[in-house]
Specification:
Blueprint (H helix, E strand, L loop, with lengths): L11 E5 L9 E2 L4 E7 L4 E10 L8 E7 L9 E7 L9 E12 L4 E8 L6 E10 L15
């Protein structure tokens, strides 16, 4: 992954649909939100990806968005879009490396939403790679320490 994030420190972390209670592979046959992640620290999104687990028909469009309030589309912005094609096969990782810096903060929600369904019921898992930003919690406006 080309590093256009010069000056940003911290390791890369993967937020995955695998290994979670509600996660795992999901169908992109129908539109709507399929998965959400709550971001645990301020970070920069570096890669969006789908892992194909069944051969796709093609034509599926999956949008990754950032929500500043969990469960609310108010202020939602698109991070990027990943498309499935008929040339993809099971085992392919379809990815998008971001060329601009997209910051997400503690408590933000990243959603995975199918915008255009794939009629052949393509099944995928997904992940987002983020780079943690070295930030003090007290410097983040919406974070409040407990008393």
């Amino acid at each position: 992954m080309a590093d256009s994030f010069s000056g940003l420190f911290g390791p890369d972390y993967g937020l995955s649909t695998q290994g979670t209670v509600t996660g795992g592979p999901f169908s992109i046959a129908t539109t709507g939100i399929k998965y959400t992640w709550i971001v645990p620290f301020k970070a920069y999104v570096r890669r969006l990806a789908l892992v194909v687990t069944q051969v796709p028909a093609g034509g599926g469009v999956v949008n990754f968005t950032r929500r500043v309030t969990d469960g609310s589309a108010t202020g939602e912005t698109t991070i990027g879009t990943v498309k499935t094609l008929s040339s993809h096969v099971a085992g392919n990782v379809i990815y998008l490396d971001l060329t601009t810096t997209v910051a997400v903060n503690d408590g933000d929600e990243i959603t995975l939403t199918v915008g255009t369904g794939d009629a052949n019921n393509t099944v995928c898992a997904a992940y987002v790679v983020v780079r943690q930003s070295p930030e003090v919690a007290g410097n983040i406006t919406h974070m409040v320490a407990t008393t």
